[in-house]
Amino acid sequence: MLLDVRKVYPNLSRRQFSPAFGRLASRVFFGATLLVLSAPLYWQIALSARNTVASQTLPPSATPAAPGSSATTPQSAPAPRPAPNNFPSNIQNNVLNTVVLDPAHGGTDLGARGTAGIRESEVVLEFAAQIRRALEAQGLNVVQTRLGDENPSFDDRSAIANAQRGAVFVTIHISSTGLPGTARVYVNSDLPTPTEPSGLIPWDQAQFSFLGLSRKFGDAVQGLLAQRFKGSPNTAQTAAVRQLRTTAAPAIAVEISSVTVEKREDLDRMASGVADAIARGVVAFKPSYVVPVAPALGQTSPMASVGTPPPNGIPKGATR
Ligand SMILES: [Zn+2]
Description:
single chain; alpha/beta; Aminopeptidase; 6 strands; 34% helix; 320 residues; binds zinc ion; 6-stranded mixed beta sheet
């Protein structure tokens, strides 16, 4: 299951979900609402960073500008920032170094199910273990949204990614359709330009600023998957993917076909190739991932791709 339910049922609102769940669900709902309501605060700070950067013309070697706020001291900073309108010069600390790996579904959500009893929620967990090893072999940190049979919410999973700095996000699915033995990468379809009068980027549109980088990342991974798994597309596809929409990082969904194989081994033997393609895709994408220092504690700026002069020019689609 990959599609954004909001796109399929555009009139569906959170409120329609809540009354049916009991007190416990109400508490969860309340917590999620707090999360959603508080999230735009991060983007407000990030947007001010974008505006600061955009108002300056910087040569590629210049230190990018930073938001000026005592409340935005980065987590790892040993001392307060002395220059309120400049990012620190240690931009090398802000390279891509982390992959947030999301085995989709879990818990009561089994995902797609095959006739042979194959459950998507179980298979993606085993794929994730192999992908993790391949990424770590490349020197990358890996953060998983779940390690066992839990089912974090979409927002919980995005929140894990959004709290990282220098991260990309990869969600793993097994499809119920498609030619068995192939794999596809999806990036989120275009999101409407945020129109909040305050300049906030809603949590709901956190992916907005990363669409260009996500596509570049997705194409890198898809190209490698196509080499390994014949019949796979050569470039990333676009779809309304709920999980990607709220993620403020270059983010892709990798969907492997399919749960309909007769034997589980037919899927299992794809895992090493998928892991290798993702790990090498991250490494290939790494030079494109040049971001300013995250302006808020533990947050990667959703405007990170905007206003930053990358060494080889603005990444494709990085600006609106
Ligand atoms: Zn799925």
